[in-house]
Amino acid sequence: MPPPEDPLWQVRLEGDDAILVFGGDWRHATDLVPAMQAAAIRRAIANPRRLRFEAQALVAWDSLLVATLWRLRGLLQADGTMLDEDGLPPSARRLLALAASTTELPEPRRPRPNLFAVIGTICLSALASVGAGTMLAGDIVRGLFSSVLPRSRRTRMQGADLLDAVQRAGPSALPIVGVVNFLLGAILAFIGAVQLRRFAAEIFVSNLVGLALVRELAAVMTAIVLAGRTGGANAARLATMQGNEEIDALRVLGISEQTYLVLPMTLSLMLTMPLLYLYACLIGIAGGALVATTMLDLSPLAFATAVAHAVPLGQFVFGLVKSIAFAALIGLVSCQIGLNAGRSAAAVGEAATRAVVAGIVGVIALDALFAVVANIFGF
């Protein structure tokens, strides 16, 4: 037999009952494993009708004893053995009852997704976003009118802020807009040349490049570049100001954030986007001309003459209108997301990502709407 200070147990049979006698020191300092002890006790008591306990010989115990009893209870209840825990220390019985009440909770039933509820939620979110954007647009228009009225200078849009926003949205975007549209024009010319060469209609490459860029791709690609570049930056800037409580400070001073912050950002996009669109058209046509002159032996003068005859002035006007609409959409969406961002560092990155995604999707959706309207009016 082990010395009295070591943990020990003994099984005594009385008829159909088994009595488990605990003694010694049942604490974790003895390096016993509860699962192994419970399995050994289960093998020793065979299959009794009821198991009782005696703990008068216990010297000390802690959670090691409770863990062993808990695992033994699970083994015996699976076999239908009844447990009489009256012989255990009262505190051990309370711990076992607490463990049973916290570990055997039923799993919550997950509600089945309702397709109509999901669609309704998406529609309501979209309507709420449209409503918030409309209200922001109204505030911007009101701020634009208030900026030209003789009011306090601090509550109006500052010219320096507008010039800074124009610099960030316009000249700084010229390299990336030029590279994207130059490559786009070159790709269009290459694909058109490969296909039109089969029908000896290489000269119509100029029509393809000119119409595709002027009517659709130059405005759309420039807007996508600005949505990823300027829209995300505006949203991140406003979200940072929101986190630093700078916008709250403006409101305390009686300065409208729509007039002081959002109006310069949106107006700068609307002023620079048409110029960037014309620049993108020119660079894209130059890229197409480079491919056409190298692959199809067309002179640059012949290519430019064919583009001038293929693309009427109305197509440029249509593209300019679309570019202004794209700019207003990017400005409103990015500023709204930035103003509604959280006040943490993670919210800044999330606002920038949401602004880029929403701006790109919005530009493509608005372009599809322009295409439908133009088709209805036969343009």
From TrEMBL:
Membrane-spanning segments: 115-137, 173-194, 275-296, 316-339, 351-377
Signal peptide bounds: none
GO cellular component, one term: ATP-binding cassette (ABC) transporter complex
A GO molecular-function descriptor: phospholipid transporter activity
Entry keywords, A to Z: Membrane, Transmembrane, Transmembrane helix
InterPro entries recorded: Permease_MalE (IPR030802)
Protein's name in the database: ABC transporter permease
Organism: Lichenicola cladoniae
